[in-house]
Amino acid sequence: MIHRAVDDGLAVTAARASKGEAKHHALFKRLHRRWEDYLRWVHDLRLPFDNNPAEQTIRTGKLRIKVSGCLRPLQGAQDFAAIRTYLATAARQDQPMLDGLVQAMRGSPWMPAIT
Question: What is the pLDDT of residue 73?
Fold first, then answer.
């Protein structure tokens, strides 16, 4: 049923009379072309429904940029991103973030298992 709606949307917006229709047509083309990718989570229940963890990882950095206008200097931004990524990975692996930081500061950082 949803696949039929995508097909109908492709047909209706094919003429692309306006800018809005061109954007909608591009969306319908993408949905049609990548149908299996968009619905992969329906068949593989191990996959998350959305990409929220990835968005949450970068949200703090984007908020800092929004509030102060930037992260200065560049090295500070790179260090912030490295620490944030490390903590996000530890959290996704059910590792306490504080323990991960303490281990890293002591010179024996926690490392995720290689799969």
Answer: 76
